[in-house]
Amino acid sequence: MPTYAVTGATGHLGRLVLDQLLERGVAPADVLVLARTPEKAADLAARGVQVREADYDRPETLGPALAGVDKLLLISGSEVGGRVQQHTNVVEAARNAGVSRILYTSMLRASTSTLVLAPEHKGTEEVIAASGLSYTFLRNPWYVENYTDQVATYLAQGTILHATGEGRIALGTRPELAEAAVVALLEDVEGDVVYELGGPSYSIADLAAAITEVAGRSVEAEAVSAEELTAALTAAGLDEGLVGFLVTVDRNIADGDLDNDTDDLARLLGRPVGSLADAVRAARVEAPQTV
Fold first, then answer.
1. Domain 4-140, CATH homologous superfamily name and number
2. Which pTM was predicted?
């Protein structure tokens, strides 16, 4: 049996990937978890999964961690600004260890996108392509959880302030994207593959309508200019760097950088992508109780 390795397995997406692998019948002994702090993966070790120390910033840990690995799922790191070098360290170690295929969680249209986060994904894809390893790029959309995790705030405020205009966002939840990653990890393919993932697109107005439908309380989408959003977020106490990032993402959405026009996600899942209302329900939104 192939040996599968997963990085970032103690994070949100990585945990879901590990659950899916085991639920699909992959033997725990055939799964490796690469973790900077192995102690954080103790529960996975208790399930029979192999846990190895692997620190992106310490290349000497990566070779031993990848010994005997057939396929590697490289879940993008979280340290914005340093990810290309970190990922390069992993790719070089994978090549030296004889890994047969590397899968990387990238960003929609990473090679051409103007999204603020795209350059590091583009850079990583270029490193992988130049390595000579067979690869699969999983170009993920913006997680819908970036919004549904804030449903309680939207309900309290009654509005979703945004500067996305009429821009649309491809629908994709972490569980769906984790499942798609596992399908891609287990599939038997030759050559290099690029999947542009994401389901039917939605606007912030659609999001507000879905929250209203599920929660039974009205939430409105309030479109403002980038300057007005900057002022509002600053007044709310957010630091300058975070404000700049959030406003830039909204501008990217307005420009169409997070929309998607393929059915790759549905094909990998083998079923339609869930609805926006389903995603809101998964956030455990409860309708207000009546007296």
1. NAD(P)-binding Rossmann-like Domain (3.40.50.720)
2. 0.92
